[in-house]
Design brief:
The complex is a heterotrimer of chains A (292), B (291) and C (250). With 291 residues, chain B is mainly α. Chain B contains 13 helices and no strands. Classes of the chains: A mainly alpha (292), B mainly alpha (291), C alpha/beta (250).
Chain lengths: 292, 291, 250
């Protein structure tokens, strides 16, 4: 029981790191960045590259992967989103261009590493066990949970207390007004993508460490769950994404008790559908339906 | 000359069939996009059509055309309550809701024994001929083209442009949105039935998120102004992997690059290239008086 | 009485946008609705045109209770409107915009809705063209609505509203952005429409236009009606002056 709770919180933490980045981009730019799962995967592979090819220790590989992911995010915006913003294209176009980038990047990774699961070289990924009573818990997961919580707090501080955070919030609220008020819009957007992708990449690295496996398709299950998390928490709401992530994590693990394994995905989508019908705004979101 | 054509057709018959089916699917999404709704549920309706048609034939011996019709009809019937539940949702939420529906359906298909679960259904008779597909395509395209110029088409365009203003012009917005949604489901269901009888077997993963997105890409890349757009988009992106075959492993990369290029430089779709001249002329008329 | 609104109220959260408002428009009347910004004029209009649901009160059109009807049902019954910030179908041509205005009068013919053909369709198209001409937009018929000059856009909205052959036409700040020549033309149009049997509810800030065309004027402030009467009566009313100018200087 404790093990299940522990795993639920762990997986919720991964979802939270992933979903927060997704929600951040949506709240600032009103687009669904369908390439976000790709940065998740890239983070993991960047760590693999750092450890396996460059021979770096894991505690260097992680920041390396995070920075690499962040930079990828900025590049992604320059290539796939900025041109569309300039010509005022509808959000749908941004979704499709991010999809195109996903196609390209996933294939490039597969060309280099193949499509199968890859494990980290032995001994390179920290692993220890914690014993509490009858339960045996994977220690790395605790570290991940703590790290995730710490980062959520850090992000909250950034968004609330720093100038950059204020700029980003202004941009999210009203882009035109923000521009007029002197916000450096391009810088704020670049920062948004850096943070979003850095967090997404970190989530990938951490998951890769926790399961000691990475593969080119590891972002896919997260993509659809990110939708659920965002809708449950309220589209574009960062605290909502965090809450939604843990709700999903707990719900999924709980549902495993009652549902067969194949239907595990069903929980995420069933929840998504239910929330959309009953309360589309989720917990903290903006209006989702037409007026009266 | 005729022989060469027939040879070509038989060599590439699967590809040509696939282009036709994808064109139908693209049209099914086009209808909803034309009415301003972004739906990712048509892969699910395709699945409904495919499974219903295949199961009716297998268990009840239903003749092919009737099975197809039933598949399409059931897809349309499913679309009604779904449409009513989700039509209140704006833009992105609608897309996600229809996507979620598709996934829920996929999971149901996986779990239900009669549908063969994860194995799906095998040994479906390859009854579909090229002419079935292209006749369907011609009929659907023609009907949609006529409807576009009729009251319904104009109402859809109005709803797409501005729902509130459309309501003030006497357009029952929800009814029209639902109609577009159901029409799309009908066409997608029919296409699903046709498709099942080319591929001999179907399984839930054929109709997942990837398929839904693929269909959307056909329509958007092709362009919205008229039915030719999605047909063209489907043809291009279905044929592209074949054309790029010499590139082998780099195929997907080039496909992605083509898609990226098109969406960035022609966000309104390929068809708009022909529209550009007309648009420029219209702009000139409007601008001339201001000058 | 063509239109009767009784005791209308609408709340948004804690704010009473409209509270206990009565309004009446008779056949062939031009009624003005004025008030400072934020007084609730547009909310009231949204209630009458069906875009918002009233929290309390009733609306009757020629005796029929229309309080709960959706906008499209009201258009079918003869209420048409323009919007404060122009809401045209920007991606469509001016001609198409007006043609869509005829939608409500085609309800009875289901087949014709799917398949354009023959005489009825031609009649609608001709009517659309003549409306465009009437509003001075004949040359711009094929221009994209989104590309028109602002004044043209406002006139196009009126043309579109007239396409449904309304009994009651609601104009929400139609003169905004118009020069004196255009405003004079608008005044003429309104007079002509009244003589053709159309009643008009006019929301406007242009005082001269309101005073020059309206038989009666209602004044809103903070969601309540604070005065009603002939233009002269309303202009002299101290409550009205206070609403616009603040407290009277002693």
């Amino acid at each position: 029981m404790l093990e299940q709770l522990y795993n639920a919180i762990f997986i919720g933490s991964i979802y939270a790191l992933f979903a927060v980045g997704f929600a951040l981009v949506f709240s600032v730019l009103d687009i669904l960045n369908l390439a976000h799962p790709t940065v998740f995967m890239l983070g993991a592979f960047a760590a693999l590259f750092a450890i396996g090819t460059l021979g770096l220790p894991w505690y260097v590989a992680v920041p390396f992967a995070v920075v690499a992911s962040g930079l990828f995010g900025i590049a992604l915006d320059r290539i796939a989103f900025a041109p569309l913003r300039r010509r005022g294209a509808p959000p749908l176009s941004a979704m499709i261009s991010s999809l195109a980038v996903t196609l390209i990047v996933v294939r490039l990774v597969e060309l280099r590493y193949g499509g199968d699961f890859i494990t980290f070289p032995s001994g390179t990924v920290p692993s220890f066990l914690i014993r509490i009573g009858d339960a045996t818990l994977e220690g790395v997961r605790l570290a991940i949970i703590l790290l995730a919580v710490g980062l959520m707090a850090g992000l909250t501080f950034l968004v609330r207390q720093t100038q950059l955070g204020r700029d980003i919030r202004a941009l999210a609220e009203n882009p035109r007004a923000a521009r007029i008020l002197g916000v450096d819009v391009e810088r704020a957007i670049a920062a948004t993508f850096f943070i979003s992708s850095a967090l997404g990449g970190l989530a990938g690295v951490l998951l890769g460490f926790a399961y000691n496996s990475v593969d080119s398709k590891m972002g896919l299950p997260l993509e659809l769950r990110a939708f659920t998390v965002m809708v449950v928490g309220g589209m574009g709401s960062l605290p909502g994404a965090v809450v939604g992530a843990y709700v999903l994590g707990l719900g999924e693990v709980a549902s495993l008790v009652y549902l067969p394994a194949e239907l595990r995905d069903a929980f995420a989508f069933g929840l998504l559908f239910l929330v959309l019908i009953v309360r589309p705004t989720g917990l903290f979101g903006q209006r989702a339906t037409d007026r009266a | 000359m005729i022989e060469a054509t027939l040879d070509f057709l038989s060599a590439y018959s699967t590809l040509i069939a696939l282009v036709g089916v994808n064109a139908l699917l693209a049209l099914s999404v086009w209808v909803t996009l034309y009415a301003g709704q972004l739906t990712l549920g048509n892969a699910a309706f395709m699945a409904v059509g495919a499974y219903v048609a295949a199961l009716l034939e297998r268990h009840l011996g239903t003749p092919f055309p009737l099975a197809l019709a039933c598949g399409a009809a059931v897809a349309a019937l499913v679309a009604v309550p779904l449409g009513l539940t989700v039509f209140r949702l704006r833009g992105v939420y609608l897309a996600i809701a229809t996507l979620a529906f598709g996934e829920v359906l996929r999971v149901i298909l996986l779990a239900t024994p009669i549908t063969g679960g994860g194995q799906g259904l095998n040994g479906i008779p390859p009854t579909t001929e090229l002419w079935h597909i292209y006749l369907s395509l011609a009929v659907v395209a023609y009907v949609l083209w006529r409807v576009q110029g009729a009251t319904v088409g104009r109402a859809w365009a109005a709803v797409r442009e501005d729902e509130i203003a459309a309501a003030s012009q006497g357009i029952a917005v929800r009814r029209y949105k639902l109609a577009a949604f159901v029409a799309g489901a009908l066409v997608a269901g029919w296409a699903g039935g046709l498709s099942a009888h080319i591929t001999f077997s179907i399984e839930p993963n054929d109709f997942a998120f990837g398929k839904a997105v693929q269909i959307l890409v056909f329509a958007v890349v092709g362009g919205i102004p008229n039915p030719l757009g999605p047909i063209f988009g489907a043809a291009l992106f279905t044929a592209l992997p074949e054309l790029l075959r010499p590139l082998r492993d780099y195929r997907d990369i080039f496909q992605g690059l083509v898609l990226l290029a098109v969406i960035i430089y022609l966000p309104r779709g390929l068809v708009t290239v022909s529209q550009l001249r007309r648009t420029r002329r219209l702009q000139q008329i409007g601008a001339a008086d201001v000058a | 009485m063509l239109l009767e609104a009784l005791g209308l109220a609408k709340r948004f959260g804690g704010v009473h946008a409209v509270a206990d408002v009565d309004l009446a428009v008779g056949d062939r009347q031009v009624i003005g609705l004025i008030g400072p910004n934020g007084a609730g004029k547009t909310t009231l209009v949204n209630l009458i045109s069906g875009h918002l649901r009233a929290d309390a009160g009733a609306i009757r059109l020629a005796g029929e209770d229309i309080t709960r009807l959706a906008p499209h049902a009201l258009t079918a019954r003869g209420i048409a409107r323009t919007f404060q910030g122009v809401r045209l179908f920007k991606g469509l041509s001016a001609f198409d915009n007006v043609l869509i205005g005829t939608h409500s009068r085609m309800r009875s013919d289901v087949v014709r809705r799917l398949w354009p053909r023959g005489v009825p369709d031609r009649a609608d198209r001709e009517q659309a063209l003549s409306l465009l001409a009437r509003l001075g937009l004949a040359r711009r018929a094929n221009a994209l609505a989104g590309e028109l000059a602002y004044g043209d856009q406002r006139r196009l909205e009126i043309a579109r509203a007239l396409a449904s052959k309304p009994r009651l036409l609601i104009l929400d700040e139609p003169a905004a952005g118009m020069n004196p020549t255009e405003t004079a033309a608008l005044r003429e149009l309104m007079r002509a429409l009244v003589s053709e049997g159309v009643a008009i509810l006019l929301i406007e800030h242009d005082v001269r236009l309101v005073m020059g065309t309206c038989e009666r004027v209602a004044v809103l402030n903070f969601g309540r009606k604070i005065a009603e009467g002939t233009p002269a009566e309303v202009q002299a009313d101290p409550a009205v002056r206070e609403a616009y100018l603040g407290a009277e200087v002693a």
